[in-house]
Amino acid sequence: MPELPEVETVRRGLEQNLLGWKIQSATQLHLRALNPRSEAPLHAIAGTKILELRRRGKFLWFVLDREYALVAHLGMSGQFLINPDHDKHTRALFTVSRGFKREALHFNDQRTFGWVSVETLHDGIPTSAMPIALDPFEPKFDQEAVITNIKGRHVKIKTAILNQNIVSGIGNIYADESLWLAKIHPESTASALSRTEIKRVLDCAADVMSKAIDVGGTSFDELYINVNGESGYFDISLNAYGQEGEPCPRCGTQIRRIAFANRSSHFCPRCQKPKVTSK
DNA sequence: GGAAATGTTTACCG
DNA sequence: CCGGTAAACATTTC
């Protein structure tokens, strides 16, 4: 469940189910399941208690009653499942307990781009998330600074908002949805946009992701589900992403799909006119 | 068989 | 060194 709203959905699910629980065992089952930059083997967190579940952008971590935190990035297909009825693609396995209760927490990941790691915290942030920018929902998110940063770049606006070092949490779905809502063409040059337009994109991103969180994120299939296996419902609210050929909900013009960085961009050719400068 | 899929890292270039 | 771009990573499905 990969973008900010899906990661937040997982964070809430873990929080509701496992806060205060003890991690009895932590086992790595796949070579790539542990981030190479992990500061300790996975079993180093055995015996710890889960105090807090935190998130920045797409990074998720368990605060424990020990020096180390359990950090996770879901990549393209990672998921946390509590007592699933299958072992499909389980890359790491945790046994958790509270009193006499005992449950299995699976980290599953079909495409193995996701990972877990054991890391120290620095001012509350794990080492691997240090270079990651704040996401739009953090109280200290400095929108003015982000606008200035984006305005100074000679890249497509979509590239800028996907850059996790500028603003974190936005992925391909919510980038397309944010730009559609803001009426900005994904290939517009960032520096060619006004501060007002860039602000609109950021405001729309927060708006879209907030609404997605409210309904449990976007689930197209079984790959993107909550810790209890439930799907999110935001897919029915998508206006641009995956809507090629469908009428734009605003003006009726057919949504167009174009290639973008080994993937796709979806936009309304009438509502979203490109604003481009060569250099 | 080719293309595409909700992500990040790395090498490479000017 | 910097900013920017493109390929690579792995697996599955259409």
Topology:
Elements: H1 4-18, E1 22-28, E2 50-56, E3 59-64, E4 68-73, E5 78-82, E6 90-98, E7 101-109, E8 115-122, E9 125-126, H2 143-151, H3 157-162, H4 172-182, H5 195-214, E10 256-260, E11 263-267
Antiparallel strand pairs: 1-6, 2-3, 3-4, 4-8, 5-7, 6-7, 8-9, 10-11
This protein binds a DNA duplex (14 and 14 nucleotides) through α4.
Element-by-element helix/strand order: HEEEEEEEEEHHHHEE
Estimated helix fraction? 10-25%
Structural class comes to alpha+beta
Radius of gyration: 20 Å
State the domain count: 2
The percentage of residues in β strands lies in 15-25%
CATH H-tier superfamily of the largest domain = MutM-like, N-terminal
> Low-confidence stretches at least 5 residues in length (pLDDT < 50)?
none
Number of strands: 11
CATH class descriptor of the largest domain? Alpha Beta
Task: Tell me the distance between the termini.
Answer: 37 Å
Shape: globular
CATH architecture of the largest domain: Alpha-Beta Barrel
Here the CATH topology of the largest domain equals: N-terminal domain of MutM-like DNA repair proteins
Provide the residue-averaged pLDDT: 95
What's the total helix number?
5
Lateral arrangement of strands in the main beta sheet: 2-3-4-8-9
The major beta sheet can be summarized as: 5 strands, antiparallel
